[in-house]
């Protein structure tokens, strides 16, 4: 399920096509059956006895009325399906929010960070002219990209100083841990490969798999840039935030080695930085 809303729209569009086809078949069959009946009426001289107008009126009323009734019934059924799908989408979004809030209970920065990165990636993906379905998938993955930090001890997650070897090893595991959590859910497993790859780097220096260039999914490459931008422009326990312009310089310096050059070119445009700032407030 790459995007709940998009899949639901396709389902409703498919139902509408099927209903139109059903109405067409019903109308055709009705015309054949009623036409046969009217031919029989003509054969037995009904028009000569009662006139042609009552025959034609009965035909029009029957076909028009029954077709309208079927159209209303099918329309009501589509509305019911749409309501059920809307309820399913709300439940799905609630799951995403609950995961993010759970992370916020462990680390307040991580919850706010996920929401900000989710907003940034929507701006980036739309500027990159990605399909709406893909934009929504990237947003969902961005919201939960640090879910694996639930498995990192609090003392490591909020440590103000430099991490030591075993502590850093625990941090390196969080993309895998987050992806494993998502993969266990049928509704969320499509997000797992993106979450697993959000710390990969084009030159293979990232983690956990050391993927190179095109082997890294584009959604993960978009999240990687937004993730670093938000980290650089946010106060952390071990350093103060830098300005968006300064963050853009840092990110540009890593374009083509760590980050996708096309994504960086969009992310560091003045108009995109302004949109980031507005979305953050």
TrEMBL record:
Tagged with keyword Cell membrane: no
Chain ranges passing through the membrane: 21-44, 56-76
Alphabetical keyword list: Membrane, Transmembrane, Transmembrane helix
Molecular function terms from GO: phosphoric diester hydrolase activity
InterPro entries: Cyclic_di-GMP/3'3'-cGAMP_PDE (IPR052020), HD/PDEase_dom (IPR003607), HD_GYP_dom (IPR037522)
Domain HD-GYP, chain residue ranges per copy: 88-281
PANTHER family named in the record: CYCLIC DI-GMP PHOSPHODIESTERASE TM_0186 (PTHR45228:SF1), CYCLIC DI-GMP PHOSPHODIESTERASE TM_0186-RELATED (PTHR45228)
Stated name of the protein: HD domain-containing protein
Organism: Thioalbus denitrificans
